[in-house]
Amino acid sequence: MSGYSVGIDVGGTFTDLIAIAADGRVEGRKVLSTPADQSQGVRDALRTLGVPSAEVEHIAHGTTVATNTLLERTGARVVLCASEGATDLLELRRQERAALYDLTKHHPEPLVPHDRIVAVPERVEPQGIVRPLDATSVRRVAQQAVERTPEVVAVALLHAFHDGRHERALGAALRSLIAGVDVVLSSEVLPEIREYERTATTVAEAYLRPSVGTYLRRVADDLVQAGYPAPAVMTSAGGMRTAADAAQTAASLALSGPAGGILGAAYVAREAGITDALTIDIGGTSADAGLVLNGEPLSEPGGAIAGVPIALPRVLVETVSAGGGSIAWVDPGAALRVGPRSAGANPGPAAFGRGGTDATVTDAHIVLGNIDASRMSGGVTLDPLAAHRAIDALAQRLSAPADRVARAIIAAVDAAMARALRRVSVERGVDPRRCVLVAFGGGGPLHACALATLLGMTRILVPPHAGVLSALGLAMAPERRDAMRSVMRQADRLDRADVTAMREELAARTGEGVERRWWAHVRYVGQGHELDVPVTPDDDGAAIAARFATLHVARAGFTLERPVEIVSLRHATFGAAREARLASARPGGVATPVPGPTVVPLPDAAMRVDAGWHATPLPTGGYMVERST
Predict the structure, then answer these.
(1) Is 503 helix (H, G, I), strand (E, B) or coil?
(2) Within 13 Å and on the Cβ side, how many CA atoms surround 486?
(3) What predicted TM-score, i.e. pTM, was given to this entire model?
């Protein structure tokens, strides 16, 4: 690349930008987000960069449009065609409770109500088609779907992961009958076992496509008209796709922004010689916890977003509603609570002077002197008096001193974030005490010492460009194209030729690239969950099974005397990544340790070093913070 590679991460409060020049030099910017139109925040961030559009060669975008659409339930009107006798899957779910001990708590309503589900008279079983879908039935089902006035039609039939002929026939009839209405097939979205997760993921894809596509087209059109390249978009799996491709895989964007942050954290950790790390990205609205092992972000096969299962590969992220804008309040029992409601960017914390009056985490930090109002980035001028008024009002309700209330607010969000860090580490068999905590986002360096103390950790990496590190991960991320296929065979029945044939089939579907990776989704026969196991070119089924057993011991602590089953095979092709040149901004590279307690101003954030800790500047910028006692 001869021009700038730009990463833009749109968050709930701030939009962050990183630009990497052709020589690897890095520049960062931060502006307030524009919730009503995220594309405006993208344009504002580019304007502050001050670089001619002709010099920008690549733009990578992390967006929350898919997540917000699920949270706000503002997606498309979807009609679902499901196998006769299996039309209640979305309501039955897995029959687990929303909360084990709270009988008043319920799961969110399905994205498709029952009156918009059409029964399809067909049946495919593992051994093949046992109830054919004839042409008359196809036309009748298609007509019934049309009568429900869909914006998008989702088709999810039983066992279509194994045999998708019925889905393809119905899809062709629907497309011919209702021109202009998108049709989404489960055999194309997720060709893998588990009917509920496959159906829910297919419905989520249909539900999200129109809003995601509209947004991405608007952003691309705006940027192209201004002379910039059309953007690439970060997927939940941690790779880039063109805006056009991303619009057709909308469900894969549900963790677009957080994935960029963990990629950036993994990169700065490797640059500092760190292989195993816990990551915490604290923004204005939420905090995202992740895990890096052997220098790479840990991935998982899927999970729920806003109560909707999306069984697509994603970087492991545990999100909690704890950020700088989290609102502190008093519950009916006169106890202090913080979040999940956030002040966001508009009106924002009381200190933003934009009309907010509720006390927030940011206001608490200002009251305690952790944030210097004169150095706030993002185009925000802070009003310390407004922060004090908000905390004082809350303190009066609690009949407690204001500084004590401010410390309690911060302690409350620290506890929530520590729980998230434990979930991504301890629950996966990883001892946090052997990891380094990589703390970033606008609030990460402020909370890092307290979080490390709660987890028994002794080392913290506060990276360069900490406040905009997610944008760095976006600017560096390579293009990624994914493909998968169902396998459902015991590992000991697959020889090297079998595995090679499947690998080559997937590689042909993703095209050329700089790097290729394969993973098998593997379990013991009878297990209800799988592990992702790396696959190499020389593997046969036995080699994959042996690698699975080693990974199972590391994650679960035991093995089973049962056959090993390969559920599916996944493949990813990667393009070239942009390299960044991280360098200290300190003249002469002075590296004097900073003992706590103190607050160290950073270019785009602030770092609090607690008593008993000291911070040592790094040659690449940022700090290594270590426990002194």
Answers:
(1) helix
(2) 18
(3) 0.89
